[in-house]
Structures are given as structure tokens and as C-alpha cells.
Amino acid sequence: MNIVDRINARFPALAAQMNAVPAHFAPGWLKAAAQDLTGLSDFGAPDHEEGLERLCDSLERDANLNAYGRMMAAGLIRGELANRLLLQRARAQGQTQGPLIAPVIVTGLPRTGTTFLHRLLSADPAHASLPYWQVRRPIPLGPADTDEVRFNEAADFLEIRSAITPELDGIHLIRAESPEECFWMTSQSMRSRLFWNLAPVHAYQHWVSRADKSAKYTDYADQLRFLQTLYPGKRLVLKAPDHNDGLNELLAAMPDARVIVTHRDMIEQMGSYFSLGRTTRMLAVNGLDQQREAETIVDMTDVSLLKMAQARAAHPGRILDVRYTDMMDDPLAAVERIYAFCGLILPESRRAAIADHHARNPKGKHGAHEYSLAEFGLDDAWVRDRYAAYSAEFLA
Questions:
Q1: Interval 63-105: pLDDT, tens
Q2: Range of the domain at 198
Q3: DSSP code per residue over 234-278
Q4: Cys staple from 209: which of 189, 270, 303, 380, with CB 3.0 to 4.6 Å?
Q5: Would you say the pTM of this structure is higher than 0.85?
Q6: Domain with 295 in it: what CATH number?
Q7: CA 68 to CA 294: how far, in whole Å?
Q8: What are the distances in angstroms from CA 218 to CA 47, 117, 251?
């Protein structure tokens, strides 16, 4: 039984939403839907418009979406445009102008331990990590849109997700209350790989990898300033692989930020990322073009590595590189190295809290994730040769 049939059988209300999505994605319709949701009209600077147009075009031309995929894409884009409207209102009301304690931001190629490290750092009670319900909708619609309302909305969505795709817990666990990656907060720019995670929007992702992201990170920094007021005195600890092709722009927008970049054996990284993408994107489509998937992911990887190298050269002393194997072998030593890099002190009580989190959350706790590059038409030796220079620099 495919996912559309499963939804029709188990979730009739969701099936009705699938049938309500228009036959074609149109920027005007999506923007009007966000305006209807929020009651707002100001989207701010037009820098998001090219990305929205390219995304809609790629969804139509590349993605081969099924009914579930069309519903998810429409809902995701509408939600991100609504977040954009709410950010503009917050700016107009002076809610994004406060100080920002220098954040610690974890990034790296996908599947290189960014989630593991982010949640480890988040276990320090002196830090504030943003839970899924909050990164998904960081700014409320109004007084009635409370934390509890947004939490319950996120929990309900995840309950359906778990019922439809229980295997995802073993690949990337998401809970409404757990720290989650902040690419939900970068997507209102319409320059984010969040949309690639949902659907095979090849042409759009090729453009996103290379696009200037200055406005994206101006928006992101303002959202963090808004959220900082909710966590007075606490340092925000954030993460998203989405940052890895925009580190220059991120560090320009937040001069005090410190970035941690994780590195993993490229055969393991690529195999894991292919597997995750196949699991998520295949749910949304009538069929996947495996060769094109491989071409797009290799292109994303190449551009990301180049842009991270450029950021290291442009911002010396602000990026720390950490190996996956070091994190796995001695997580607390990796944490202490990061604290030293950031100029932070780690008292014994907070160190114990991090150690306790690690003891309670061993790798594989929620299921094993097994994969191989051969499943996706790539050869280990080809990957090893292509990224030999990278591996020699960061993994030796």
C-alpha cells in the first residue's frame, strides 16, 4: 500500500486536505494563502520572490509529486511565507532589535553528526536550544497562538508522521520538545535545502547551492534576536546542514557567532544522506530518478565544500572543524574542545548534565540505519577518489 492509500485509509481529514491542493503551484496563490492565514500583507523586501518562483517551477517540472507530496509542499511553502509575514510584523514592532548573545552554530555536510553534537551541547543548562515546535513556527500569530497551541500542533503532525513513516525515527528522530535544526527558520527566504529534503526539486536546488544568501541570514539573525528575548541570559545553540553553503553570509550577519563544522568519512556520509533522502522524497513522488538524485547530491556536496573553504579563508578563527570519529570516541573531550574555542567555561555540574544526556541517548537507541552507496549507483572507490583531498585535510 503506497502512502496515498495509507492516508486515505487511516486519515480521512488529511485525505481531504490532499484533494484541496490546486493542480498547479503558483507563487500568487501561495502568498495569498499565507496572507489569509496570518491576516498580514507585508512580505518585506522582494529578495524571496526569485526563489519562490524557481521553487514552484521546479516542483512542477522536476518533482513528479503524488497527492501527498503536493499537499506537503503547499503546506510547507505557505507556512514559511506566513513566518516571513510574522517576521516583518515583529520588525515593525521593534521586536528584533535587541542584543544577541554570541550563538554557537553547528553545521557540516548532512549526516556527519550535527544532530548528535547539537543535542550534546544543548544538554548544558546554560544553553538554550530551540525545540521543533518553536523552530517550525518561531513567531506566534497572536495572543491566542500560545506556546501550548504551537506545541500541540507540532506534536499532532509528528504523530501522523510516525504512523505513516515509523522508520524515520531510526534515521532522524524528531519530537515536538526536542532540539531541532533551524533550517525551518531559514526557509522563509526561499533559499533553503529544506524543500529538497521534501521533494526532488533538482533545478531549484542547483540554484540554491550557488545563490547569494545575505538576505537569508539577515532574516535569520533577526529571528534569533526575537527568540533571544525568550531565553534571557542563555546562549542559543543551533544547528543545520543548511548553513554549510552560506557560511560567509551567516558570519557577516552575526559577527560574534562561532561555527562548528563536523566531518565524516565521505562514503559513510554520502550513503547515509542518500538513504535519508530516498526515505523522505520517495514518500512525496510517483517515482524517483535515482541517477538524477545522485547527480544533484554530488553537486550539492561539491559546492558546499567549496563554500565552507571560502568561509574559513574569509573568517579566520571563527570556524572550528570537528571529526565525527572524535565525537563518537570521546564526546566530552569534543565538547571541551568546542568550549575552549568559544571562550566558554564548563563547570563540573554542567559537564555532568552533558555526560548524563549522552549516557541516556546512545547511538542507535531508536533503531539502526543501514545503507550502502551501491544501492544508489555509486562506487565507494569513486567517492574516495573524488574527495581524497578533503579527507586528507579533515579526516586524517
A1: 999 998 999 999 999 999 999 999 999 999 999 999 999 999 9
A2: 3-394
A3: -EEEEE-GGGGG-HHHHHHH-TT-EEEEEE--HHHHHHHHHHHHH
A4: 303
A5: yes
A6: 3.40.50.300
A7: 23
A8: 11, 25, 10
